Amino acid sequence: MNLEHKFMGPEAQLVVDGTEVAGYASLFGAPDKGGDVVERGAYGRSLERLGQKGARVKMLWQHDPAQPIGVWDEVREDDRGLWVKGRILREVEKGREAAALIEAGAIDGLSIGYRTLRATKNDKGGRLLSELELWEVSLVTFPMLPDARVGAKGEEPEARIMRELAGVFDDARRVLVPK
């Protein structure tokens, strides 16, 4: 069995509120550093099979199957990507550590663990992933997709993106229009 990992970065914006975490673990149409792109609907059958069995996607620390740190209470696809919402368990040693590191801003990445069921080559040198068997979503140090990171408490992903974009325009204006 080939377990693969796909990391997300700041765009996914995992929001932390105490021990609750929520955000996008995967974004459709966004190429990762390897050129792979997840197609809309790629997780649908996997989530359906898990639901039929009464099983859950696991929440792991750094993809280590020996270190579950919480539970994902909600995992679903929407038009944008794979949305997850869950709880870090502070009763677990690694859960306490993960929560502290996230709150301090030291850890801010998300990554999925999956097996590819259907894929084709894409024009970016990677793959178009059209069906995946989702096993786990991990909190990680280094995301493969640089746009999936932990967000500030209560901050919507769009708000951070707009604030960062405004900062880019302000910087450009300072360079182009000197005082």
UniProtKB/TrEMBL annotation:
GO BP of this protein: proteolysis
Keyword Nucleotide-binding: no
Keyword list, A-Z: Hydrolase, Protease, Viral release from host cell
Domain Prohead serine protease, chain residue ranges per copy: 19-153
MF terms (GO), sorted A to Z: peptidase activity
Amino-acid biosynthesis is among the record's keywords: no
Transmembrane segments: none
Name under which the protein is recorded: HK97 family phage prohead protease
